[in-house]
Specification:
Length: 153
């Protein structure tokens, strides 16, 4: 069985398997080997430097490890994949906030509609009352006119 070495720290064999040259693990597909090799590139923290802080003119500054940082909450992750999984949290939070705002807008529209309905009903009632008052005044004038006519006849 002949083994060929390619440029990226892995070797292939003619039987279709792929071997990691770093740890000698074998994988059936090139993609599986590529995913595995990312583990060799991760920064491994053996000391407590991740939690170390420096005091700089009275302000606390966290040591930057040069890793993947969330721009929303500034949390750092070892891999881009971990950051991507973390970002789902922020997307869900934003979606919930939008849903809450939309719900509040709908409630406000309902309140405004109810208020306008009440105002409209009050105006209608006032208009009806003024029409009734006009009719009552007209009846009163007619009654007075009829009484005057009887007296004068």
């Amino acid at each position: 069985m002949a083994i060929e070495t390619n440029k990226r720290n892995r070797s292939t064999s003619r039987d279709g398997g792929y071997e990691c040259k770093t740890c000698k693990k074998r994988y059936e597909t090139f993609q599986a080997l590529g995913g595995h090799q990312g583990t060799h590139k991760k920064v491994k923290l053996t000391d407590e430097s991740n939690d170390a802080c420096l005091l700089n003119l009275g302000t606390v500054v966290r040591k930057s490890l040069g890793l993947h940082r969330c721009q929303t909450c500034m949390k750092e992750f070892e891999t881009g994949q971990a950051l991507g999984g973390h970002m789902r949290r922020h997307r869900l939070e934003k979606a919930l906030i939008l849903m809450e705002k939309e719900s509040m807008w709908r409630q406000q529209e309902v309140v405004e509609k109810a208020e306008s309905d009440v105002i409209f009903a009050a105006l209608e009632l006032q208009l009806l009352k003024s029409k009734e008052d006009e009719q009552d005044e007209a009846k009163t004038e007619l009654v007075l006119a009829a009484q005057e006519w009887r007296l004068s006849v």
